[in-house]
Specification:
This protein is mainly alpha-helical. Helix content is about 70%, strand content about 0%.
Length: about 120
């Protein structure tokens, strides 16, 4: 059995840096850093500085990146270490991500999500 300290070291080793996370997101979108700068409204220099580990991302940077990538800001803030990582089982983490997304929806969209979830739940009964 591993000690708590050993587990923490292993967990930290396995965690991606923000730069690695952002590079992965750019790859998913098939974007270059210049594309991200243009779509987010962040300067090319700021994007370059973050990608070269010369600057840590701040809240404004993270919000702009989230808008450009069309993902919940909480996800970017967690990747940047500005919010604690979601913990728990894989299902708990997915539920947390779902809640982050639902928070971004307007009232009508939230009702649609709720209606769909209730419909799916009732079908299983």
């Amino acid at each position: 059995m591993l000690s708590g300290e050993t587990l923490l070291v292993v967990k930290c080793y396995l965690m991606k840096t923000f730069r690695e996370w952002l590079e992965g997101e750019l790859k998913k979108q098939d974007w270059k850093p210049a594309d991200l700068a243009h779509r987010s409204g962040v300067s090319r220099a700021s994007v370059s500085n973050v990608l070269n580990d010369m600057r840590n991302p701040g809240p404004d940077f993270c919000n702009a990146i989230a808008r450009a990538l069309r993902i919940p800001p909480e996800k970017v803030f967690r990747a940047a270490g500005l919010l604690p990582a979601l913990s728990g089982s894989e299902d708990d983490i997915k539920i947390g991500e779902l809640l982050d997304i639902v928070k971004q929806l307007n009232q009508a969209e939230r009702q649609d999500v709720l209606d769909y979830a209730l419909w799916r739940f009732q079908r299983k009964q």
